[in-house]
Amino acid sequence: MITRFKLRTNHSRLVRFGLVVLAPCAAILLLLSTLSGVGAWSEETLLYFYDPAAASRLLYTDTTVSSVHFDLVGTLAIAAGFSVTDAATIQVYSQMVDPGRLPANEPIYSFKATSYPAAPPITTVMTTTYCPSPATTAPTVTMGMTDLLECPGCFTSRFGPYSPFFHFPHDRPDELGAIRAWAFGQTEDLIGIATFGYSGTVQFTWQNYVNIYDVTPCFVTATATVDTGGIVPGSPEALGIYLHSLGDNWSHGDCIAAVDAEDKLFGAHVAVTTGHPLAPCRWTGHSLEFGDPERFPDSNRTFTGTLALYDALVAFSEQSARALYRPIPITAEGNHISDTLYTFVHTSTYANAHPRRKIADDLREWSLQTRASNPAYWRHRVLLPLLLKETGG
Predict the structure, then answer these.
(1) How far is CA 277 from CA 108, 339, 351, 393, in A?
(2) CB within 8 A of 363, min separation 6: which ones?
(3) What is the pLDDT of residue 347?
(4) What is the per-residue pLDDT across 158-182, written as a single tens digit (0 to 9) for each?
């Protein structure tokens, strides 16, 4: 079940491109906040959020979404055998890892965490490779604090203590593996890694204008039990969160490899020049993740990432009693799902997201019809499609 509520606000809406009417400092801050929102398989221009649990598709033009994290994840959940209701939940929570609430101005959905780990005082930090001189480091915490969160409960925030953990996870047991174990209900608590930075210069929100590793002389990490705001292990909500982090692991794969090669503690978007060892971490790299593979070779990694998302959904479906149908194999029905994913990734560029939404919508309808009409996909043989009628059951 999706937790739903309404939050009213009197804040006036800012016009994204109305920078010319703002004072110079305000314009810079607004531009900064816009660029800082870029994440893996990031929100795409004019691809607006809609509530997948609602009967009608009302578009919320204050909130853009990712065609992968949002549209495609919801579709693949249907193909993997989940109910319409559970698929909507998975879809929402996959997208919500980035903004923490949907839609932006009057949230229907929001995380509800209440506690976060605190950065240790710089006076207690030990000398390490990543904090070589704590005694001469400014005591100001510029990364990992909670005052940058998009909402008080946004524990997956790109600007909170768990930013690298959820958005640049390594594929190892203590990072992506920990999220998967929790999402699959194999462990009661989500044990995460909080990352803190200390600097006398800039906050983490300036990551798109600087190389955060150069301007932050001290980084420390701490293992903590993540307050998930009531989201329980093994739930559709938890699965959606895992799928987002799995997608980020693929989308940020080249960046993660680059920071590892440079012996950095974590991955993050940075502003560096072409040819710099950390060039794969530039936020502009996300504009290369879709399109003709000859022109946009990064799109090949995106395609492989979509296959990984479906594999994860199928794995959860097969070990869970929640799924109502058996998953449709990716190569079944004339290789339909695999071929559609290839088309989804390679047909249009990053800037042209609407063809991807149409492809995802068509695949969703095909999956609904295919699983309802073919008894091979029925988990319960007694007139299952007639009983469910695909209305949310």
Answers:
(1) 41, 35, 26, 50
(2) 75, 79, 337, 340, 344
(3) 95
(4) 999 999 999 999 999 999 999 999 9
What ranges in 111-221 are assigned the alpha helix state H?
163-167, 176-183, 212-215
Contact 179, 166 (CB under 8 A): yes
Question: Hey, what amino acid is at 293?
Answer: P
Q: Is the pTM of this model over 0.85?
A: yes
Whether the Cβ atoms of residue 130 and residue 265 lie closer than 8 Å to each other: yes
- Measured N-to-C along each axis, helices 253-261 and 236-251 cross at an angle, to the nearest 10 degrees, of 60
User: Among all chains, which residue has been given the structure tokens 């504009």?
Assistant: 287
SS3 353: coil
Could you tell me the two tokens for 361? 């919508």
**CA–CA gap between residue 267 and residue 289 (Å, rounded):** 18
Q: Are strands 191-198 and 218-225 parallel, antiparallel or unpaired?
A: antiparallel
Q: Which residues contact 286 (CB under 8 A, 6 or more apart)?
A: 38, 39, 40, 41, 42, 251, 350
Q: Which residues pair with 128 in a beta bridge?
A: 131
Domain boundary assignment for the chain: 39-110+290-393, 122-231+264-279
How much of the chain exceeds pLDDT 90, in percent? 80
List helix spans (H) across the chain.
24-35, 73-79, 84-96, 163-167, 176-183, 212-215, 236-251, 253-261, 298-319, 332-346, 354-373, 384-388
